Amino acid sequence: MNWLENLKLAAGALWANRLRSVLTMIGLVIGIGAVILVVALGVGAQRFVSDQFAGLGTNVIGIFNAGPRTRGRQPLTLADIEAVRTQASSVRRVAPIAVGQGKINWGDHKSQGQLQGVPFNISQIIRINFSQGRFFTPAEIDNRKRVVILGELLSRKLFGYENPVGKTVMINDNQMTVVGVTKRSFFGSWIDLDRGMLVPLSVALESLVASDSPFGKKVDGFIVESKPGVSSAEMTFEVRNLLRLRHNVTDREDFLIANAQDVVNLFNGVALGVTVVLGLTAAISLVVSGIGIMNIMLVSVTERTREIGLRKALGATEEVILTQFVIEAVLLSLVGGVIGMAWGIAAALGIANISPLKPEVTTWSILLAVVVSAGTGLFFGVFPARRAARLDPIVALRTE
Q: Please, what is the angle between helix 260-303 and helix 18-53, to 10°?
């Protein structure tokens, strides 16, 4: 008996008990679909994180006023920024940031958010996307123009869906003109582009944030971009040593250095870990469905004992009987696997259409699903098939 005849026999046997076959496949359908969906979500999450953090740049680090040193802490100052800019050979651009709290009013609408003074070159270091308006011009920065860029969530809170560009708002009792609204960033950045507000650094230091200190004009941090061909690790080493020297640090530093690539790697690691855990959890249903397939095949062997005895009496070998029942189990699991793949892919596409997270169904996950579904049928179908193949034809024919 060739493979095609065996396949027809297997399909006929499954169709004759189609309700039982469908119920048996449900676990496999759920398991395969869940594995494909979880893998797609994991891959999509890693891509989403990488895209969100791409604006930070992998050759960028942030230095901020913080650290374990509590006594004799020296704030970061404009003099520190100038020293890094002129003395660190690995540095291409430096952008200081001054941070404070801003109370903002527009008519009867009031709110507050993080106020951040930034220079023009910050837009050359990190990516700032706009839903409306634009970034500051060099002339506005140099001439200390009182202009402001609002985060999308802050703008929505004040103006609703009205375009705020060109309107005048009051920030800490200072009149400011809105020139732009940043597009929402789901993972943020070195600066708050969602709920905060950006103003020219010179304006912030002059009248909007407290910047005086015994060491000079202080800032809350600065962003540093390395020169082409210089790794962030090399730049971090040079900048750290320069600041330690300037701040007279001998043990614990009074500043923190954050590496954008480390943040990306951390999120990717978390996403991969969650994907693996959820994937293994979904795979448990495959084991359960495999046991169900084995159970149903054992029932089928019992019900068809006389048929098996008759076929063996007519000359069917153990290999033929074994092949027939294995094909039935594999066919059952393959059909369930195909249906599971279909709903897993459909669910991934549905999520991609309604959320910013874009699940990615990969070729290897589909191939894995096919192999797993076929392997499940083969592994759990062998035992019932061997039992059927080893039946004594005389005993089988006497079975009622």
A: 170
